[in-house]
Amino acid sequence: MNAELDLQTIRDRLMESATNAGCNAVGVCNQEGxxxxxxxxxxxxxxxxxxxxxxxxxxVDEEKLELYMGKIDHxxxxxxxxxxxxxxxxxxxxxxxxxxxxxxxxxVVFAGNTPADGTRADVMPQNERQRKAAELNPAKASDIMLxxxxxxxxxxxxxxxxxxxxxxxGNILTESHGAAVSLGAVITTADLPPxxxxxxxxxxxxxxxxxxxxxxxxxxxxxxxxxxxxxxxxHHKYSTRGHHMRCASHMAGLTGLSENGKFGSxxxxxxxxxxxxxxxxxxxxxxxxxxxxxxQVPGGFYDAQKGTKMNIMCSACNLVCHPExxxxxxxxxxxxxxxxxxxxxxxxxxxxxxxxxxxYLDAMPPEKRALYEDIEGTGD
Length: 380
Description:
The protein is an alpha+beta fold.
């Protein structure tokens, strides 16, 4: 490989390779363009001397997505989610390899790179830039306690590189596929020329808040917003997020029924989270105990950092969003009218109308039913 190529050519070749591999958006950001963001935008937190990052998004299969959103079949989307993320990681590994052959250091930024997922690095501010960033973008006490602060934020890199923009859900929306994408990133000591941030008028998010409508828990605020300034751009805005365990409990299938009791995620439990955040942890521990006693859901994947088995049971807030509002409306209707989940003896989850699910649960022996809903007199 010719090490004499200039940085512009190296960047363009890497971006072209990602596009040819099926990525719907590719961009580059550098330390200057990330200035002012939270500490997780300092690339040197993961790689000493890092100067830039290449960021990509890869679309999921929309037909399989709609089977999932319509509560028709859980498996095809989950399998596509696993496939898509494996493709992303392969692309990022190849980019890393190419940059190293050019003589630069490079590392893949893995999704979920937080202390709770096994990251050994201290994510608390380590230098003056990070301390200043932490003052401008203070972390919540619950995020520090739970270890949900990322070492490097893929979302922030995606917004700063022009790959997409923040929707009200806090997920990255791309111009062609909305938020139904997987993100990937590589950081490098190569000072690659940045690509432009998308202008505010490119952001199709009209604050419809349908992402909040499909969320089964009170994770996204309807009145408070978080605005992040990175570089010269201060239009990165999304709904302020609540306690991360509210989202994680549905994502991991610890619970499933919405707070209003009218719809659910793919989790088969009807147990509710407490209103008070201070009571969340003991409740979550109890829900996790229920899951350990239930049949194992088929399929899934093992988290590379924690080593635990996982299944995708929600993600509605990002899967509902699409550039065309009629598609958004369709997906919202499918999710909210698709019934609620129950679990069969073999671990399979499926959905049915509320009334049918009620009949199914009532037919269970009390000790088994107590794994899915609170029953008077069982101590739950």
